[in-house]
Amino acid sequence: xxxxxxxxxxxxxxxxxxxxxxxxxxxxxxxxxxxxxxxxxxxxxxxxxxxxxxxxxxxxxxxxxxxxxxxxxxxxxxxxxxxxxxxxxxxxxxxxxxxxxxxxxxxxxxxxxxxxxxxxxxxxxxxxxxxxxxxxxxxxxxxxxxxxxxxxxxxxxxxxxxxxxxxxxxxxxxxxxxxxxxxxxxxxxxxxxxxxxxxxxxxxxxxxxxxxxxxxxxxxxxxxxxxxxxxxxxxxxxxxxxx
Length: 243
Fold this sequence. Notes:
The chain has two domains: 14-177, Spore Coat Polysaccharide Biosynthesis Protein SpsA, Chain A; 197-234, no CATH class. The protein has five helices and eleven strands; from the N terminus they run H-E-E-H-E-E-E-E-E-H-H-E-E-H-E-E. The chain has helices at 14-24, 45-54, 133-140, 147-154, 177-188, and strands at 31-34, 38-40, 61-67, 78-83, 89-94, 116-119, 122-130, 160-164, 171-173, 204-207, 211-214.
């Protein structure tokens, strides 16, 4: 993988950086747009391939969200509505961190002749799969300072798709001290790692101070039947097979 570092003194926001990339002509095809504070282990390849295929249907961007438990604090709450048939984004609202009033208006025309799903249990890790035309649209509108500005403007044209990450994939974004603390805990507890000890096909005991010990009393879940009342044990060196 080749990494090219681009620097510019003229960029003061996220939108300026994209306009700079467009001016230099560095991006020719589809690309992954990700915030500086995003932490993820997501496999984006299938989503990228899906977005490339959906470009034939006017889709210029796929925004990626992650479902979380309803009672879990995030520090970055959003409310979205999607077309249940096409998975197109039709409404997007991000709550400000200091916003105490949780009331807002849902435009009635968004629900006309549509099967709409409203979500309030997702977080926005600031990951999007984009067509190259996204850079052109940022270049044409200097008022786009963030990816949220772009999404709010273009969802009215039915050009934004939504994708939810699977449960086993992690994605979050550092936006404030609260989210930084939560993500740090997730990293320390190995919820973020794809290749750590948590993904081995073995059983371990998680002890204090992040110490892992191999569990001698493994709990077998497939093709094993033991009669506890008959005092049946499987000792070291034993082999269990079908038949």
